[in-house]
Design brief:
about 190 residues; mainly alpha; Mitochondrial import inner membrane translocase subunit TIM23-2-like protein; transmembrane; membrane
Length: about 190
């Protein structure tokens, strides 16, 4: 671009008035995009609640458990279906085998993790209601109870081992959440 063309473009730009859609609103443009960092609530009662209600917890944990179990189970079923294919199988038969294995394993694992989420949410909400406080102990005890209840039909030894595993897993998850809150800037 030559200097005369550049000078002409600068002069044309200075003469032109930019359109400001907020001019008639009498709002300073600097304040328009300063968004609040605190959460906004539709109703004042929502700002008082520090945790989800028992029904929201039940839905959240059950849904997350089922979805994660279904995805992980479908992945494992896919691998099993691919491994079980035989050299003489047609493509249609292989695809059918993979789909059947994925659906079966995904459904089974999804249901198991959904039930575990349901038990955990119910126990945690009940413990919070009984104790009257919401702290880490409630989560760990709910994890212990969930593992024990889930494997109760397999005998007392299996229930105790599953309870210990559940308590350890929830304890590790809560500790990890606290570390992330403390050391990771969000």
């Amino acid at each position: 671009m030559s200097t005369s063309t550049t000078d002409r473009a600068n002069v044309d730009e200075e003469r032109r008035r930019l359109y400001n859609p907020y001019h008639d609103l009498q709002i300073p443009i600097q304040n328009l995009y300063q968004l609040p960092t605190s959460p906004e609530f539709l109703f004042q009662e929502e700002s008082v609640a520090q945790r989800r209600s028992w029904g929201e917890n039940l839905t959240y944990y059950t849904g997350c458990g089922y979805l994660s179990g279904a995805i992980a189970g479908a992945g494992k079923g896919f691998v099993d279906g691919v491994r079980s294919s035989e050299p003489g199988d047609t493509l249609k038969l292989r695809v059918n085998r993979v789909l059947n294995a994925s659906g079966h394993t995904g459904r089974r694992l999804g249901n198991r993790l959904g039930v575990i989420g349901l038990l955990y949410a119910g126990l945690e909400s009940g413990i919070v209601e009984i104790r009257g406080s919401d702290d880490i102990v409630n989560s760990v005890v709910a994890g212990l109870g969930t593992g024990a209840l889930f494997k109760a039909a397999s005998g007392p030894r299996s229930a105790a081992v599953a309870g210990a595993i559940g308590g350890l897993m929830v304890g590790a998850a809560v500790a990890g959440k606290q570390l992330v809150k403390r050391y990771v800037p969000i």
